Please model this.
Amino acid sequence: MTDNLTAAQKAIGDFSPKLVELTDGVLFGDIWERPGLSTRDRSLITVATLIANGSTEQLVGHLQRARANGLTVDELTETIVHLAFYAGWPHAMSAVTVAKRVFAEQENPA
Model:
């Protein structure tokens, strides 16, 4: 039964149903599905923004989504390097640590 739950439902559904509703319905149901940008481009923008904001907790899921949306490990790693100079070295160092773990888990699932 829990396999059919969205990531937001699993993470916070019992605590904040309204935030789940907005996340699933508006963010991923509307914003991510708009025709103006591809999901690949949306993923790149989202990953870059999360890195720039230092939001490493959300970065895990969005790096996974970015790979599923067609971005390569090399492209995502280069994004982190590029952002080191625009978003700050500490943000890039934190992001590369998260990315290294996420990509290793994708290559060697438990």
